[in-house]
Amino acid sequence: MRKSTKRGATTASAVALLAAASLITASASAAEGGKKTLTADTLATWQTDGIVWSIEYAGGVVYVGGTFDKVRPPGAKPGQREVARKNFAAFDARTGRLLPCAQPFSGAFNTVRALKASQDGKVLYIGGSFRKAGKARASGAAALNTANCTLRKGFRPAMSSFVRAIEVTDGAIYLGGDFTTVNGKKRQRIAAVTPEGSLLPFKAQIDAPVRAILAAPEFGKLIVGGDFLEVNDEFEFKLVALRPATGTTVTSYPDWLPPRSRVKALVRDAANFYVAAEGRGTGIFDGRIAGRLGNGEMVWKDTCLGATQALAVHNGVLYSGSHAHNCMDTPGGFAEGNFRQHFLAQSIRDRHILHWFPDTDGGTGEGNGPRALKMAGGTLWAGGEFTTVNDRPQQSLTRFSAGPDRGAPQEPPQLRASASRTGRVTLTWRAAWDRDNAELKYLIYRDGKLVASPTRRSAEWNRPTMTYTDTVTPGSSHRYRIAVTDGRNASARSKAVVVTAVTAAAAERTKARR
């Protein structure tokens, strides 16, 4: 369990000292290689009383689907000020305000697993395991008019089992999951329907659940991921590209994933697609892969363990939700330790892990923490089964923005002082760490005056011992304090340590006794 972060306010006098000390000029969100991440500070966000499985954004609204009965305001504890929302809720993307759109989805396994908006944002397609959408009967799939939050009567495809993934193109809505029939006709784990819910000729034979679908129509591909081993009577370990019109295989990805891994999420940018993997068993591949949309070649593959559940790509950075550990062989990563990191940010160019470390607990259910990520107007929304974010209570939903950075580093280091040489005082402390800044500046005060400001890079798992030697008048006594800043936010100053500098005579006596 991590120690709580204490955020100390910077006083007016401290501000002047910070300016005089030539503070760090890089933005709080600056990352390695020139990439900029979001801040690690959370925005005030509503909460749910259960798991969030999917998030979608359309027309200034963020839609959330999952397994929950109620939502409650930011800061509210379970049972306080709750509002009924049956597995589906809508929020203002900019302010986070709860919106009145409140269609319930209920029955069967009672969950919404997939949300996807049409390309014009006018329709939201909804999948999962439910038997009622609003007051009408439904079989695991429905559609919502986003303008007025009404359910579309014509879209009611009859799914024989779970819908876990939805993708939308100009002419088709692709559904993936556990089902084997749609509208009474054989469709094995994937199907394509019209906006009215009628089956299209698209057909592929897949032997196990589909969990992610990604359209790349400009490349003539529909990329599909899941638990499967065979597609269209050929071995296709968990990942395959199909023809969007027919379902025949276009591209195979041999050796990208081992048989005991499965694909949980797919996202893309203009040139690449990104794969989130979950391994079954100790040491089985759990990380992320980047591949070319066009030629199907692998760009990179990281080595982190920790069951990646969700991805989002933004401004050259790949954000992921997992419980990452043992990332030692990935650039910028960390060795196996006594903690799990539930959010990561990586450069899309070279998989380098950037210094962006907001975190959650594992939470309820399977204890995987984050389950869904979605960029919405420059803000990253995250949902899952967590109950804390950055060591503070926050259930199942949170969000992060581009800034400004509001979080100071952790509580100030504790100073130790020694005086063994004439007129020299040596201060020692353990480096602090910050969730979204690798390089921190340490402000050392002697008798209230700033005398030094060394900098050092650090992370939660890499907090080196730092020292500073001050030259003072032999025999004089002084009070030392230290604070730490990320360049924008500073901690409170530490408790003072008082030390008396050694005189020349005392130093000689000590030397003679040795």
**Integer average pLDDT:** 92
**What would CATH call the architecture of the domain at 12-26 and 408-513?**
Sandwich
Distance between the termini: 45 Å
Task: Tell me the β content.
Answer: 35-45%
Structural class determined from secondary elements: mainly beta
The radius of gyration computed from the alpha-carbon positions, rounded to a whole number of angstroms, is: 27 Å
The CATH class designation of the domain at 12-26 and 408-513 is Mainly Beta
- Care to count the β-strands? 44
Summarize the main sheet.
5 strands, antiparallel
CATH topology of the domain at 12-26 and 408-513: Immunoglobulin-like
Low-confidence spans: 1-33
Please tally the helical runs, counting DSSP H or I stretches of 4 or more residues: 2
Helical residues, percent: under 10%
The gross shape turns out to be elongated
Name of the CATH superfamily of the domain at 12-26 and 408-513: Immunoglobulins
Structure, explained:
This protein is mainly beta and 514 residues long. The protein has a domain at 12-26 and 408-513: Sandwich (Immunoglobulin-like), CATH 2.60.40.10. It is built from 2 helices and 44 strands. Strands 39, 40, 41, 43 and 44 form a 5-stranded antiparallel β-sheet that branches. The longest helix has 10 residues, at 504-513.
